[in-house]
Amino acid sequence: MAIQDTKPSSLSRVIAALGGLLVSLIALAPFASFTMLTITNHGFMLLMLVILGGLIAISAVGRLNQASILGLLAYVMALLLASWSWFYRDPVGSMLRLTPLLIIPVVIIGVQVKLFNSSSSQGVSPLFSIGSLLLMYQPWPGPLIGAAWGLAGGITSAYEAFSMPTLPALTYIVTYLIGSMMQGTLPWNPISLTPLSFYRVFVNNIAVYSNPAVLSLVIVMAVVYVASPSIARLIKGHASPILASLLASVASIIPMLTYDQSPILLITQTVAILLIAALPASYAGVWYVNSTDVLPMLYGSIADIPDRYNLMKYYHEDWEALIGLDSAKRELIIAAESFRSNGVRPIHGILLYGPAGTGKTALGLGYAAWLGLYRGFRVILVKSGRLMRGGSWEAAWRLERVFALARALQPSVIYIDEVDSIGRAREEAGTGGYRLVSVLLQNIDGVASRYDKVLVVATTNNVNALDEALIRPGRLGDLKIYVAKPPPELVKAIIMGVARQRGVIMPNWLLEKAGSLIETGAEAEALVNCIAVKQLAGVNDATQLEACLAGITKGIEAYDQFPTGSG
């Protein structure tokens, strides 16, 4: 049985669109306040508000990377329009003022967007970076709220699979610090857009550059930001992404100290404003990038990620409705306990193998759905046909992305149907296939992934074709479950169970005959479906019903025994 379509439901699309609308409104709210406060020309003001509406609309339909690029261009345009009147008086001074305020965000936010584009994913944190920048030009407490927006972007970024929690706060801090130094003011004052003279920038403000306190703040900020990625990963592995992001973004407070207030009052004021401004925005961003309904939109180009509707569908159709595999289900449920203890190495792989048509796909898919619904796992479905498009080398790259996504979203489960199509013995796989198998081996049980909470559930009809290293303990050999053909009594139970689920009347004589001829659950399901079609058409003739059984058990030979026409 092939994996069914995993397109998000209509409800999930609506939730994702509303979520994108909400988060982009929050992230880009400073755009509106900047426009109203700093752009005096009504035509320019209307233009920027229309652009803001377009950015929000693009974000709502899930084009977050495009919205980030356009938002960055809108930031550049906003600063140019706000400085428009100054260009007539002093174009050189205006460019001297604007150049670092434009170049630094373009470079850092460009890196953010590139991380998402290179991984074929989407991210919302660059929008928070853009919003934070626009707050530094607004009156008090605008600059401090801008730091909070950068912090919110960092917290959100910590939950995004292919991002860096330091970048949103780094964008704001570096831009704001350089802007403050150029105009010779202490931190937390808004950045002015008035022209600067060469003398004022490089000579008159030399005291600001050489001030030991400012220099020490710059050094400390640089040290924290260089060290923060590794510190964040260490903390994230043992606590929560929020704590990791807070640590990575704590440098947003360091260079913002003023020196004319008591330290206690300053710290209290700064922390209070940061928390009040950052927490609501952070909550919206974190909810958005973790929502089961949004994940297919963020990472759907990498792999199939079912939303809650599809998980419920898989659970009911492929787990609850699966008959005769209770023992295998118990083993799978017990295996999930390894993810609850920090002192036990989580199981890395589960291999379901056996003859075709015995229910392996349904069992594996249903188990993945159960993990997603009741154990908080992120479910990632790998379709071999889709993975192999473009050849083995491209498939290896895609598989790397799948595992990187799974590690970022852990605890997670990767379900691979027909794993023999990508995990064949390396001596038989060719150069590209060798690379593909190596990627699979390294990611299931690599040095860095031994304690990652990433489970791979795979199925195969041909276990002998798999690379031996793939099915050893520590990889898919952690738990191997043989799914055998059911005995006759179980076949009858499966037929009756499927018939009850679908409201089909199964004649006793046909049930007894089918019990001795049908060998797999797939054949049992096909028989019930055939009889359902006959009954819907009003056909209850015994010969026609027996033709269903013959067609399943004898194949093409049944057409000679039960002809349907003269040809």
From TrEMBL:
Residues 346-487 form the AAA+ ATPase domain. The chain crosses the membrane at residues 12-32, 44-62, 69-88, 94-111, 146-162, 169-186, 206-227, 239-258, 264-289. SMART domains: AAA (SM00382). Belongs to the AAA ATPase family. SUPFAM superfamilies: P-loop containing nucleoside triphosphate hydrolases. Coiled coil: none annotated. The keyword 4Fe-4S does not apply. Pfam families: AAA (PF00004). InterPro entries: AAA+_ATPase (IPR003593), AAA_ATPase_domain (IPR050168), ATPase_AAA_core (IPR003959), ATPase_AAA_CS (IPR003960), P-loop_NTPase (IPR027417). Keywords: ATP-binding, Membrane, Nucleotide-binding, Transmembrane, Transmembrane helix. One of its GO terms (molecular function) is ATP hydrolysis activity. It comes from the Archaea. It comes from Caldivirga maquilingensis (strain ATCC 700844 / DSM 13496 / JCM 10307 / IC-167). This is AAA ATPase central domain protein.
